[in-house]
Design goal:
Family: Belongs to the SorC transcriptional regulatory family.
Helix content: 40-55%
GO molecular function, one term: DNA binding
Number of helices: 15
Strand order of the largest sheet: 1-10-9-5-2-3-4
Strand content: 5-15%
Largest sheet: 7 strands, parallel
Keywords: DNA-binding, Transcription, Transcription regulation
Shape: elongated
Structural class: alpha/beta
CATH architecture of the largest domain: 3-Layer(aba) Sandwich
InterPro entries: HTH_MarR-typ (IPR000835), NagB/RpiA_transferase-like (IPR037171), RNA_pol_sigma_r3/r4-like (IPR013324), SorC_transcr_regulators (IPR051054), Sugar-bd_dom_put (IPR007324)
Distance between the termini: 56 Å
Pfam family, one: Sugar-bind
Length: 310
């Protein structure tokens, strides 16, 4: 009797999984009820006669995430699956994944510090409405520029604030001043100092990493002199919040750093969540250096970049 049941459930499983018969068609062919077909299919799975394997790229991404967490000592890694290894497509997918992650982790009372740039703009555009009580959005670096190149600085802050139904704290200053003395005078302004202190207090910081290639956004904005650019490119690998660092994550031009308005990189190490959103071939070395400096404890990247980082 048991052997007959085994034979019947295997026949049912073959018709269902191999021959694509519906449960009703199987019931008609074998002269049994449809609920009996359903129970036999369940029995076949329970007995191990049927083993279902799903080739899901998310499973592969989970493995990649775990390897990156282990190698770089991170709290979390989220991989954005990109169908193309192309900069614009990767940014688009990073925007979706970055917005999803923020939606998952944010809560009432959070202070969220954000930088600017094209990657952060993609995140801002993908944010879903999630009203938070007592939350604040604060700009982590100066966003004023007279260049024709768009930093999206104000729009990013505005979109974040709207998404979380809270207030935005802008830092209406150039990101780099002409001299250390002028920058120090601005630091004494009570209003500006309060915003920068709020950036330090932020429990969540989200930012990207810039490159030191000739066409990097920060170079195109006109803040950096040709002489400074040469110095930066000699030892620099990338920047976070317009603070340039070498392959070990160490500030590579202290004089320029002293003229920079915004959060200091060591402050990022103290955050509950310090989230680096970056991907693409041109960002790989900068991401490595940022992780070497321990400036991020959460990484959001794409699968191509993730594999390169390993």
């Amino acid at each position: 009797m048991e052997q007959d049941k085994q034979r019947l459930c295997i026949d049912v499983a073959r018709l269902y999984y191999k021959s694509d018969y519906s449960q009703q068609q199987i019931a008609t062919q074998l002269g049994i009820s449809r609920p009996t077909v359903s129970r036999l299919l369940q029995y076949a799975k329970e007995q191990g006669y049927v083993k279902i394997q799903i080739a899901d790229p998310i499973d592969d991404m989970s493995d990649l995430e775990e390897h990156l967490i282990e190698k770089y000592g991170l709290q979390e890694v989220r991989i954005a699956y990109s169908p193309l290894n192309a900069s614009e497509e990767i940014k688009k997918q990073l925007g979706v994944k970055g917005a999803e992650y923020l939606n998952d982790i944010t809560k009432d009372g959070d202070i969220i510090g954000i930088s600017w740039g094209t990657t952060m703009y993609k995140v801002a555009c993908q944010l879903k409405t999630k009203p938070l009580k007592g939350a604040q959005i604060v700009q982590l670096k100066g966003g004023v520029t007279h260049s024709k190149s768009n930093t999206y600085a104000d729009e990013i802050v505005e979109r974040f604030a709207n998404a979380f139904s809270t207030i935005a704290r802008y830092l209406p200053l150039p990101v780099i001043f002409e001299s250390k003395e002028i920058k120090e005078m601005v630091d004494q302004d009570r209003h500006m100092n309060r915003i920068m202190e709020l950036g330090k207090q932020a429990n969540i910081a989200m930012f990207t990493v810039g490159s030191v290639k000739d066409d990097a956004l920060l170079f195109r904005l006109g803040y950096i002199s040709p002489a400074d650019k040469i110095k930066i490119q000699r030892t620099g690998i990338g920047d976070i919040c317009s603070r340039f660092f070498d392959a070990k994550g160490t500030i590579c031009n202290q004089e320029l750093d002293d003229r920079t308005v915004g959060i200091k990189l060591e402050e990022l190490r103290k955050k509950e969540r310090s989230i680096l959103v970056a991907g693409g071939e041109r960002k790989i070395e900068g991401i490595k250096a940022a992780l070497a400096g321990k400036y991020a404890n959460v990484l959001i990247t794409d699968q191509y970049t993730g594999r390169a980082l390993l």
